[in-house]
């Protein structure tokens, strides 16, 4: 009996301290809750704990914030790239349209300049564009985009806005070849605007120089004089500018003076030509 009592007491003694400790802790916690509720003893402790843990919370939020910012940045980048590509396409399209409008405006200005001179022609002028160039060592011929179907005929005078350029020599259904006055095979009746002295201008195979023939040594001709069409032959309208005298040489013993002239038409840069049917009948 004594042995069983001795074995039972330690087990009973072990359980009592545990229950007491639990009771003490519960009472202590209840007391702290009551004191904190009445006197806010733990408020400062909670504030301090909050200040300590706040940076931890901020660090924990960084990955989420970074993810949202990255997603926003990617969306904005894609939008900016798409916008940039669209602007580049619009820029190219607008530049092409601008060049087209500039080309049309330039063509219109050239045609207006071409039609401004008062050409006395029997009928309306036929405006043609130069579409091809056939150049050889002794002259130049150009192809225009008007032909028999548009009423073009062989022998028509070809004029630009500054002066006589040449005449039609071959007519195709919708095109025609024009021999320029710089061609050695071309001869043009002219007269000096200042004195009325007549001459014939022939080509020398150069776009910047012609020769005035059959001018007597005694003829009153000076550098800077204007040569214009005389109307003789019926192919060219009269009084249309042709060339300006650049050189006069009189050699004793010869019948005619050596006279060089510069064509007023821009023979090396022709884009449009006006075709004339000759002088107005009297």
Tell me the layout of helices and strands:
Blueprint: H1 2-39, H2 43-115, E1 126-136, E2 139-144, E3 157-159, E4 164-171, E5 176-180, E6 187-192, E7 198-206, E8 209-213, E9 226-229, E10 241-249, E11 258-263, E12 272-276
Antiparallel strand pairs: 1-2, 1-12, 2-5, 3-4, 3-12, 4-5, 6-7, 6-9, 7-8, 8-11, 9-10, 10-11
Task: Describe it.
- The protein is α+β, with helices and mostly antiparallel strands.
- The protein has a domain at 126-276: Thrombin, subunit H (Beta Barrel).
- The protein has helices spanning 2-39, 43-115; strands spanning 126-136, 139-144, 157-159, 164-171, 176-180, 187-192, 198-206, 209-213, 226-229, 241-249, 258-263, 272-276.
- The protein has a six-stranded antiparallel beta barrel with strand order 1-2-5-4-3-12. A six-stranded antiparallel barrel has the order 6-7-8-11-10-9.
- A hairpin with a 4-residue loop joins strand 4 (164-171) and strand 5.
- The termini are far apart.
- The model is unreliable at 1-6 and 118-123 (pLDDT under 50).
Q: What's the pLDDT, averaged over the residues?
A: 79
Number of discrete helical segments: 2
CATH first level of the domain at 126-276: Mainly Beta
Largest sheet: 6 strands, antiparallel, barrel
Radius of gyration: 52 Å
Q: H/E series, N to C?
A: HHEEEEEEEEEEEE
CATH superfamily of the domain at 126-276: Rod shape-determining protein MreC, domain 1
- Going by CATH, the architecture of the domain at 126-276 would be Beta Barrel
Instruction: Estimate percent helicity.
Output: 25-40%
Q: How many DSSP-defined strands?
A: 12
Which runs of at least 5 residues are low in confidence (pLDDT < 50)?
Answer: 1-6, 118-123
Distance between the termini: 168 Å
The percentage of residues in β strands lies in 25-35%
How are the strands ordered across the major sheet?
Answer: 1-2-5-4-3-12
Shape: rod-shaped
Summing up helix and strand content along with how strands pair, one would put the structural category as alpha+beta
CATH topology of the domain at 126-276: Thrombin, subunit H
């Amino acid at each position: 009996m004594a042995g069983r009592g001795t074995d039972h007491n330690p087990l009973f003694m072990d359980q009592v301290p545990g229950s007491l400790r639990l009771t003490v802790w519960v009472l202590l916690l209840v007391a702290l809750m009551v004191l904190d509720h009445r006197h806010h003893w733990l408020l400062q402790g909670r504030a301090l704990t909050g200040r300590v843990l706040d940076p931890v919370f901020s660090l924990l939020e960084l990955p989420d914030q970074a993810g949202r910012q990255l997603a926003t940045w990617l969306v904005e980048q894609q939008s900016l790239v798409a916008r940039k590509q669209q602007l580049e396409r619009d820029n190219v399209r607008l530049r092409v349209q601008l060049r087209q409008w500039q080309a049309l405006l330039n063509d219109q200005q050239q045609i207006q300049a071409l039609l401004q001179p008062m050409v006395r022609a029997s009928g309306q002028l036929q405006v043609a564009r130069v579409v091809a160039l056939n150049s050889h060592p002794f002259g130049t011929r150009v192809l225009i985009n008007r032909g028999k179907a548009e009423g073009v005929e062989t022998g028509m005078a070809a004029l630009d806005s500054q002066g006589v350029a040449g005449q039609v020599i071959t007519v195709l259904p919708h095109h025609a070849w024009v021999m320029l006055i710089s061609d050695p095979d071309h001869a043009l009746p002219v007269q000096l605007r200042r004195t009325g002295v007549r001459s014939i201008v022939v080509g020398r195979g150069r776009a910047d120089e012609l020769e005035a023939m059959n001018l007597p040594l005694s003829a009153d001709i000076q550098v800077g004089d204007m040569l214009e069409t005389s109307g003789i032959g019926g192919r060219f309208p009269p009084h249309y500018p042709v060339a300006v005298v650049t050189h006069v040489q009189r050699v004793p013993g010869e019948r005619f003076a050596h006279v060089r002239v510069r064509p007023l038409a821009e023979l090396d840069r022709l884009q449009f030509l006006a075709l004339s049917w000759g002088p107005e009948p009297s």
